[in-house]
Amino acid sequence: LRTILNAPQGRTVMAMPVIDPSIYRIPTMHIPSKATAVRLRPPAELPKDAWFQAIADTLVEHVLPASSGGTMLLCTSYADIDGIAAQLKARSLDRTVVAMERGRSFSISRGDFTQAALNGERPILLALGPAWTGVDLSMPDLPAEDDRLLTALVISKLPVGLNDSNTMLSRIKRMGMHAVTQEALLTLKQGLGRLIRRSGVQDRHLWLLDGRVYDGQPWSAKSDMKELTAATRRMVRSYRT
Q: What is the pTM of this model?
């Protein structure tokens, strides 16, 4: 925040953050091996069909069998939502796939997901935008141990470049790629925080599937984003399991 506000370091006082230990103690964090990360590396250019298939394969083979309730996949574009949803729907799953659509409020998709969960369908929600930062998918009317609305959260791709406001463009001009990295890390931390919204919940799983974090290859021809990938790996190590 000090960097975003361009406040002089000598004029700021920063206290240690207050963090609920359950945020890192309850969930199991899953990361791909280096071999698997190669398949899960988002392509820099079209087509993305092989990546859509790799994400869908991981969901079907690993994520869904471990999820006792609902699953949310956080995406960074509608094109990615459409591509992954098409792969999932082609597989005749026994779960409802709710895909956020262009021009429709996220609250509609959230309502469809919640209703499907109440029907016992263990749905899958593919979403972006407010799903990263402002949604609470929990059932406070139920005891924490019975809350199964969201038991698995999947990050398909690091949230890079989602903010294209004039303020953000000014920060990039002033700070370069460091501004992009800091914005992505803040959004990523908020996204990971969607899973644990109350103490006492059980059987929660986080999946960070962006292969670029783990395969050791340069990010792109323009930038390798070492600062972002290193900080992401440090963030992942905060989880106990």
A: 0.91
